[in-house]
Design brief:
The structure holds two protein chains of two kinds. Chain A has ten helices and ten strands. Chain A is of the alpha/beta class. In chain A, strand 9 and strand 10 form a beta hairpin. In chain A, helix 3 packs across helix 4 and helix 4 crosses helix 5. Chain A is globular. Chain A starts with a strand and ends with a helix. In chain A, 50% of the residues are buried. Chain B is mostly helical. Chain B has one domain. Chain B is 81% helix and 0% strand. Chain B has ten helices and no strands. The longest helix of chain B has 36 residues. Classes of the chains: A alpha/beta, B mainly alpha. Chains A and B meet through helix 1, helix 2, strand 6 and helix 3 of A and helix 1, helix 4 and helix 10 of B. The complex binds adenosine-5'-triphosphate (ATP) and magnesium ion (MG). Magnesium ion binds next to helix 1 of chain A.
Chain lengths: 257, 264
Amino acid sequence: MNAIHCRNINKHFKQKKVIALREIDFTVPKGETFGIIGPNGSGKSTLVRILSTLLIPDTGSATVFTHDVVRSPMAVRRMINRVSVDAAFFKKLSAWENLRYAARLYGVPKKQAREKTLAILDSMGFPKKRFDEPLEELSRGMQQKVAIARSLFTSPILLLLDEPTTGLDPRSKKEVQDFIFGLKRQTDITVLLTTHDMAEAETLCDRIAIINGGGFIAVDKAERLKDRFGVNDLEAVFMRSTGKEWEESEQDAEGRD
Amino acid sequence: MRVKTEIVSTLGFLERNLSLVRRYLGWEIVFMTYNIVNALTIGFIGVTQGKQFVMYLTIGALVWGFLSVLFHEISESVAWERWEGTIEYTFMAPIHRFTQLFGSCLFAIVYGLIRTVLILFFVALFLGLSLKQANLGAALVVLVVSGLSFIGLGLVAAILPLMSTEKGAQATHIMEAVILLVSGVYYDVSVLPKWLQPLSAFSPATYSLRALRGALLEGKSLTELWPTVLLLLAIGVLLIPLGLIAFNQAEIYAKRTGKLKRNG
Ligand SMILES: Nc1ncnc2c1ncn2[C@@H]1O[C@H](COP(=O)(O)OP(=O)(O)OP(=O)(O)O)[C@@H](O)[C@H]1O
Ligand SMILES: [Mg+2]
């Protein structure tokens, strides 16, 4: 079964006259961890938002476990959760107060929610005693861990991670990555991960898509991408595929339509 | 099962707002004190003119306090989540928008009532109340029905912050100011310039204040007040579904144009 199925998605934003996504077409089978790498402003978050029912594509369609994100958003919402790069919380409320609110929205019993989130946080090295402190007093890394706990205690079968480790120190980053890795091993969760960390993409993702100027340039296993671009690490693949030559050909494409 | 989930979610909104009130307690106390003092100063204006006029003014202050809290809490519930950045997470949750808005309304009512009772207490303490000829039952009915119409207004106004955080919040403030001006909160609408007077007919507050003063100052009964009560009820029954539909449309528009949020 396919966890994600996108067909010719196009999305533009009028205010800024930008084309955020063009002809996005891909499939992620259940259980896969699918990575998306690409420069700033290449459309990664826009794609994640479409899959999270927060944006409506101009054309094309996207389904999550066969449910259309525009026509049956409710069904999709029950299956997904998302972590964004900025930990969006009520900053004056504590981690627990924020998570309790989320628990109510997702219909998870309070006790179960508390136990589960504490267990998740604990395994990422979050200090338990700070669970009831206002979030604004926690460091960015701690807030991000709370955001990850929020996305997981609702037991999503598709997890959308939009730069979950950006801005974390190396240890926190490792803890979060190990946690995602463990999750993959122990469950059949499907993960869509965007990142600017090439090593992270390589170790966590089964396949990787390279996006530039709103379009997928290549989708493949990391090894195959390296072969294809004739380089020996993913960073070089990134540089090659999103470098000048590509940008120029993108502009050509833009000029034509 | 689904209904239960939705009820639990409604509780979630109440609980969350309660936690917010607790965390912003300092501000709550400051605003509360300001509102009490504000109601008192307005009441004092009437003292030289006699008890009846004091009552006339304090009814204005109390009713306006209650209705504007309803309007504010609902119209700004979206704006608030946009400032905090949590709006995407609330919108992504598997709950009906109706539940979310209903949660905000419920909180607004409870919060508004508590505030109004507190102000009432201090007004009675300092100015005394003369309720000898008042028809309290009728007043209560009028207040409840007015609440509905203001919830409706709040819902209609809530779509503005959905489109734009700042401009939306500005627009709701302007809306509130216009209602305050034309509804005869502290004076009879007949004192307004001729060209402004027709506007007062469009504000539900005009009718609720007229009816409440009728009940509290002249002891009018529901049988005398029913045309106004019915009108208020109609406004509420019309505006609430209209607000919900408009909200849904605005949400779709926001999701098409990317107005919900842009960073990340
Ligand atoms: N809500 C919005 N309104 C207007 N323009 C938007 C909106 N969201 C994204 N954009 C624009 O669409 C393009 C793609 O943005 P997007 O956020 O998807 O990029 P990204 O790949 O996630 O970048 P980053 O790596 O910096 O997170 C950018 O040009 C951005 O300015
Ligand atoms: Mg992004």
